[in-house]
Amino acid sequence: MDFRTRQDDYFFWVRATALIVRDGCIYLCQSPDGGYHSIGGAIAVGETTEDAVRREVREELGCDIQVDQLAFVVENYFESDHKKVHRIEFQYLVTPLSEPNRMLVEGDTQRRCEWLPIDQLDTIDVKPAFLKTALKNWDGQVKHVVNREGTSNER
User: Which of 56, 88, 103, 115 is the most buried (most CB within 10 A)?
Assistant: First the structure.
């Protein structure tokens, strides 16, 4: 069972995210609205964030990864399908050990994935929005980010 709960108007969960990076590009999934997002999902109760990111990539992209380094811890606040979401995310830089599937499979849903140049993310609709600049400016140290509806605050 993954850890998700609802408190009043908010849906809350903890998520592990793979920042799949290679040759100056990041592998992202296209949303139904045309934007892009990283690969990952909710952490199961009793599961480490590193194990969760490995499991999510294997389930969604059919490939194994090497977890390299925790890059960002994100407090992410946004709305999705008219629901308020508060999500804590552990975002890891990872290396794919084989070529990931071009389609992300999640239940009955399939979405296209592609390699996008990191230095062009600021021109693309990427969620969470802080990734547009934070990834290319990352200095190798874990960053704490508060991301609210497209605005972010690094700490």
Answer: 56
Q: Which domain holds residue 19?
A: 4-147
**Tens-place pLDDT, residues 75-85:** 999 887 778 99
Q: Is residue 153 part of a domain?
A: no
At 4-61, the pLDDT tens digits run 788 888 889 899 999 999 999 999 999 888 899 999 999 998 999 999 999 999 999 9
Residue 65 in domain: yes
Threshold 0.85, pTM exceeds: yes
Phi, psi of 51 (to 5 degrees): -65, -40
- 55: tokens are 């499991």
Relative to beta strand 39-42, strand 36-37 is unpaired
**DSSP output for 15-47:** EEEEEEEETTEEEEEEPTTS-EE-EEEEPBTT-
The number of distinct structural domains making up the chain is: 1
Radius of gyration of the chain measured on its C-alpha atoms: 15
- What is the domain-level CATH number for residue 35? 3.90.79.10
